[in-house]
């Protein structure tokens, strides 16, 4: 059986929830991105998850910084955000964001997944609240040119929403089980 390391970068907890469930189901080690560098050498398969924030992926800089340690390893990369990956109109933007976040040297060995997250505006830092307010104004100015993702953003703005569906990580876990030669538990 191969050694699996599940790494996550999460500001408010949704990405951490997915990562913890994946690690538990696969009997894998769980680490925050900031603590992962010394653990990468011992891993055969690395799951790296990051929350989507302002068109970027949380933890992407650390991923790039450690790209050499990940070269040749099986990488499963997932993003976590409000956009619905089941909505065909949202998928291109999610894929583009993931491609920008993944270092070129790692793209060939990486499988990419997108999962829905959560948002509690009351829990946002003042900086994130300010950024979300600016984003809202930019989207409102688009008028009829708003995308489905834009409309989802406006629908959830200022609210507490939770779209986390741990079972949505099932395909990711199935790929991991196959890569690790393991028949570990289900994601729940």
Automatic annotation (TrEMBL):
The lineage of its organism: Bacteria, Bacillati, Bacillota, Clostridia, Eubacteriales. GO terms for molecular function: electron transfer activity; FMN binding; menaquinone-dependent protoporphyrinogen oxidase activity. InterPro entries: Flavodoxin_CS (IPR001226), Flavodoxin_dom (IPR026816), Flavoprotein-like_sf (IPR029039), Protoporphyrinogen_IX_DH (IPR052200). It holds the Pfam family Flavodoxin_5. GO terms for biological process: heme biosynthetic process. This is Flavodoxin. It comes from Anaerofilum hominis. Residues 5-144 form the Flavodoxin domain.
């Amino acid at each position: 059986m191969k050694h699996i390391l599940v790494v996550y970068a999460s500001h408010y907890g949704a990405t951490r929830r997915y990562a913890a469930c994946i690690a538990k189901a696969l009997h894998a080690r769980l680490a925050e991105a900031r603590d992962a560098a010394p653990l990468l050498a011992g891993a055969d398969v690395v799951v790296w998850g990051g929350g989507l924030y302002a068109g970027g992926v949380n933890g992407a800089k650390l991923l790039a910084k450690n790209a050499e340690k990940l070269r040749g390893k099986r990488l499963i990369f997932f993003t976590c955000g409000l956009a619905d990956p089941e909505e065909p109109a949202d998928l291109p933007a999610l894929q583009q964001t993931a491609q920008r976040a993944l270092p070129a040297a790692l793209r060939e060995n990486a499988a990419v997944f997108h999962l829905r997250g959560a948002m509690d505006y009351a829990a946002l830092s003042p900086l994130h609240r300010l950024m979300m307010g600016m984003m809202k104004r930019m989207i409102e100015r688009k008028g009829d040119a708003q995308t489905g993702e834009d409309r989802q953003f406006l629908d959830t703005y200022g609210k507490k929403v939770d779209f986390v569906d741990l079972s949505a990580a099932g395909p990711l876990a199935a790929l991991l089980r196959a890569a690790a030669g393991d028949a570990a538990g289900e994601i729940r």
